[in-house]
Each structure stands twice: as structure tokens, then as C-alpha cells.
User: Fold this.
Amino acid sequence: MYEPERRNTDEPPEPRWYPSVVALPDGRMLIVGGIRYDGNRIAKDYEAAYQTLPDRYQGRTLYHELFDPCTGQYERGLFRVPDQSDGQRHDTDLNRTYPRLHLVSLWDGRTVQARVVSTGPSITSYALKEDWVSVVWQRLLTARNVGRSDGTSVLLPNFRADNPHTMAEQALYEVMVIGGGYVRQDDYISNAHDSTEILTFSPLTEAPYTHMEVRNGPRLAFRRAHLNAVLLPTGQILVIGGISGTFDPDGAGEQVRRWLYPDQLVLATELLTYTPAGWQVEEVAAAPAELNDEVDDQRPPDVPKVPNGARVYHSTALLLPDGRVLAAGSATNAYYRSDYYDDGRRDYLPMDFDNYVPTLYSPPYLFKPDGSPRGANDRPRILLINPAPTELDYQQVFKVTYALSNEGAAIRSVVLVRPGAVTHSVNFEQRLVRLHFVVASSNGLHITAPWDPAIAPPGWYMLFLVDGNGVPSEAAWVRLKGCGLQATQLTVTLEGVQGISAEQAEAIEHSPMTLEFRNAAMGATRASYTLPMMRPDEQGRVVLRLWSDLPAGVYELYVYPYRSWLGRRVRLSWQPGGSYSLVLRNGDVVKDNVVDYGDLLSVLAQQGLEGLSEADVNCDGVVDAEDAALVATNTGTQGDE
Assistant:
């Protein structure tokens, strides 16, 4: 529950019970759905609007809202979903309790487009595009296979590359919907689904502006509703708890949240692992079945006890910084079998099914191959992060000093995991972002913060290093800056790009560009950024977006040598949110598509220096592109501006 510091008194926040809240790229919070309080608490502003709605829509919310934590400002958006030709508001997931919302990032080859998608619980999905306020929710044309009430959904990591080099390899555009829903077996029993579906989103240029492809995902080993699904730093999904279906002892068909204990309780735990060949489903350690819940002291002796590991309605599960998973809670009702009647019939009696005992789960990566627990030195360790405090711009390069595990496996991926916000089987904030990194030394990494806030909205994240054995470090906390976030346009023209092959264009797209802002007077580096590239146009131009909170002023901008293009220093009058252009000269003097020893000798020969067999200009023991760039600078072939 929130109370804005400043708001338009003509538009008070709409009363909501069980809404969904999701972070947006600009740092604002989108608030959707929930139901209103009873009629005595409905604000007068809404009474006229509600009088025009059929009775079945009374109590549903009418608008989505946005709250800006940087300014305390509240803003109301539109709600209308044009899913009928009359253009009127309709009862959908978006004005019920806890619509399953996710912020997805869609790469169109030039820019990242942000969408908030609703993935359930009904079979109909919706999407909201930027600017969030003056646009309406669009009903997507593709329907999912089944409804998944009391199921869950997870925003999937990008599995294209462990170490992303392109925006397409970092964007998050897939959601897995898991379990839930009920299929009637007879008058008494309904079964939850054991199926999953994977939803892939992509941008469209016209309404509904978002395309959704649906395909079958992995099948669970157990049917589940009221489950929790936790994203691990390895990209695996841990599926915890739930019930296998519902139960109606009267055979009257009213089976919502009424289930039979212990028959329909699921204590088994499953681990979903993505591989290029498909998803693997593995049953791992089950939740504890001990029956010593503290609430049992007050139970009548003939009422069954609740297992410590039981996680059903009102339970939660969260990833912890040490890599373990905390599972807690449950508060619901169930039925159990009592003694037989004389005529052989059984009686089914209600019981409170409350669990106050939290449990901790250690995933397989916290154990050695021989089954013994891993100690601190058996995992990668983050020793130091620079800069500190670890508040980062997007695209900013930061340095991590680390130690490998005793097994010596190299670092395979660096990930940010957003801390969860989970309730009623839905985790709105859960996301894993793989970061671009360069191994700088045997114990040092140069890591680039996420490339776009649509991929990782501002806020706190857990930073994990994951080694080649799939073992994560303990997390360090970093914060992505958000307030006052602006994108600056940087147009880079690559000289001589005309006529390059498709392979060369693809190589450019897969080679990020690094630049530094330096103090114009002293030359000290203020910040370094690594930006994802894209295929240049016919004039060799690439339009980049730089996210930086550097204050306005005069800086020296240094662009590192990039493939066959020489580095460049530019004195820049910097204004955040501005637009700048620069040209990189091609250092490929002999035109063989690489800057190497031959180019260096050619540059030296142009200056009258012939017959050199070795020319390591910068004395690093290697004749390479840096030497060619240095000679070009010193001889005036490439000059400072």
C-alpha cells in the first residue's frame, strides 16, 4: 500500500485489493488490477463511472496507475481494453486480483522496445506499450492453450549466450507459464495442470503492437496449483509446493481452494534446466514432511498435523544472496478423511491448514560431486567491486576482483538477479540478466552493467559469478541508477564501411564498443562505458544510446580502437540527453580487413621508415592494433580534436 506525497486531488488513487505492481524502465511503478473495497469506501469520483457498468463489473478497478518514487508523483492511466467492438471497458484479468504482469524487452534490430505483458490467469494475454499513460492495453491475437488459475509465470533469462555481445543476446522476451488451472475428473475431484507453455514476444509496427507466439514447454512430474517457481542464478527454475487439484466433498462442483489432505498435497520439488536440446525436468530433494508445526499445539488430537515443508495458498519462496531458497508460509483450508461411518461411508471434515515454519532449500550447485556441502572456497568468490559504492549507470564498466573455486573452473557467466516480490504464486519482480564481461586478468573481470533499462529497470540487484561447473558465488549487491535517467544519442560513422560483406557486418554487430569520459584538464577517467553495436547503414552510421548521469560539462571523450577503426579523442561539451556525432577513421591501411603488423609497417613506410622487422611501439611485447593506432596518432594520420 502506498500514499503519494503529491497527487492531483481530482484524481485520488483508486482503492485496490490484491493489485499487481511492476517496475518500469524509467523507475516508475505500474499498478494494475485488484478489486475495490466495499461500496461504503468507494470514492465519489468513481460513482458515476460505476453506474454505467453492469452489476457483474461492480467492485472491479477501472484504471491502471503509475507512481514515481523519485518525485512522489502519482498519475492515472487508461484502462480500456479494446477486446470488443463496442470499445467499452470489459471484465478481464487486468481488473481482477493479481494479473500476472512482466516487463519484457523487445529488440527490433535498432532499438529496445519495452512492453508490460499480462500472461494470465485466463487464456487471453494483453500488452501495454510505452508511454504507459496515454495508451490502452491491447488484447493479443494469439490465445494460450489453457487457463491457469492458481498457477504461476516466470520471466525467462536469455539463453542465447552466457556472455552476451549484442542487445539481442541480453533482451528478455520470453515467459514460461506453469501449472494451475483445473480439469474436472468427477463430481468430487479436479486436477491441476502439469503442463507449461512458453510465450515469446516480439514487436509489431501496428496494433496490437506486440506479437505472441505460444509453444509447449516442459511437462512437470507433478500436477500443481498454488505453487512457487524461483529463478536461480544458473538460469534454472526451482518449482516448489502446491496442491495437485481441488476437492468437493458434497459433489456440488464448488471446488475453489478446497482440497483433500494429504492426498492432494505436493511436497516434491522439481528443477527445470534449459539445454540447447530442450528443457530437462529433474525431481530433487522433497520439502520436509515432519509434523511438528507450532500451530499443532492447539489442534484437537483427531485433526491431522501440517508438514513443515507444506507450501500451498499464501506461501512464498525467494532466492537468497547465498544461493539458497527460502520457502515460507501457507494459510488456507483443507479437508481430511475422518473415521468411517457404520455404513462404510467416509466423512470429510474441514481443517485449518496454516504453516508458520520457514524452510531453506539448498540447490544441487551447493554440493560437491561426492554429495558433501560446498564451503566458501569451493565456490567462486567476489572479493572487491570498483567503483564503490556500487551504484552504476547503464552500460558502465565496473571491475570485479574475484577468486576461483578450489576446482579452478573459469567464470562462465556474470548475472544480475532482481530480488523477488512474491505473493499468491506470482513473483512480479523476478528477472535474471546476463552481463557482458571481459577477463582482464587471472583474478579480475571488467563487467558491463545492463545495456538498457527496459532489460533491467532501476533498483537493487544481486550480482553473481557463475563458473564453468554451474556453481555460483555468493551475491554482492549493486544498484542501477534511475532517477533523472536520460538517454544521449551518439551517432558513430565507421569510415570505409561501404562494400563490406555480410559476415563483416555481422562481426561489427557482435563487437561492443568501449569509450571513456575523462577530465578535460587532468585526463583522469570519470567513467567507462561499453555499448552494444548494430549493423551499420549504407553510410557506415550506427546510432547508439548512451545512458549516463554524468553532469553537464566539458569532457574528453576517448573512443577505444574498434576492430579496424582507429581510436579517437574528442573534446566534448556534454549535455545529458543531447545528440552527438563522430567519425572513426579506418586504420586498415592495406585493406585486408584487419589492423595488424602489415598496417603498422605501411604507416611507418609512409613516414620514410623502411625495412623494419619489428616495431613494438608501445612496448607491450605485441605488435597489434594499438601500435598502429599510436603511430597514426603520433604522425598526424589521426589527430586529437
